[in-house]
Amino acid sequence: MNLLYKALSLLFSVVGGIVAGTLFKQVWKRAAGQDDAPDAADRDYTWTQVLIAAAVQGAIFGLVKAAMQRSGAQAVRKATGRWPGDD
C-alpha cells in the first residue's frame, strides 16, 4: 500500500504543478491584465509587483498541492480501505 500511495503521490504532484501553473497564469491575467507575471530579475517591475506576484503564486501552488495530496490520500483509502501512513 505504501508503494501505491508513493506512486499516486508522484503522479498527483506532477499534475498538481501543471494545474497550479495554469491556474496562476489565468488568475494573474485577470487580476493584472498581463499575460505573464513579473520575473524577479526583470528591472521593469517594482519590488511590490514582484512580491505580490510571488505571494499569489505561492498561495495558489500551496492550495493546489494540499488539494492534490488530500485527494491522493482519499483515493488510496477508497482503493485499500486504509489511510496512507496508518500502520
Task: Give structural notes.
This protein is mostly helical and 87 residues long. The chain has one domain (2-80). It is 75% helix and 0% strand. The longest helix has 34 residues, at 47-80.
Q: Which descriptors would you attach to this protein?
A:
single chain, 87 residues, mainly alpha, 2 helices, elongated
DSSP strand content = under 5%
Average pLDDT confidence is: 89
For the sheet with most strands, the description reads: none
Shape: elongated
- Helix content range: over 70%
SSE string, helices as H and strands as E: HH
Low-confidence runs (pLDDT<50, min 5 residues)?
A: none
What would you report as the Rg, rounded to the nearest angstrom?
Answer: 17 Å
Distance between the termini: 10 Å
Number of domains: 1
Helix tally? 2
Give the helix/strand layout.
Layout: H1 2-32, H2 47-80
InterPro entries: DUF4235 (IPR025329)
Protein name: DUF4235 domain-containing protein
Keywords: Membrane, Transmembrane, Transmembrane helix
In short:
The protein is 75% helix and 0% strand. The chain is mainly alpha-helical.
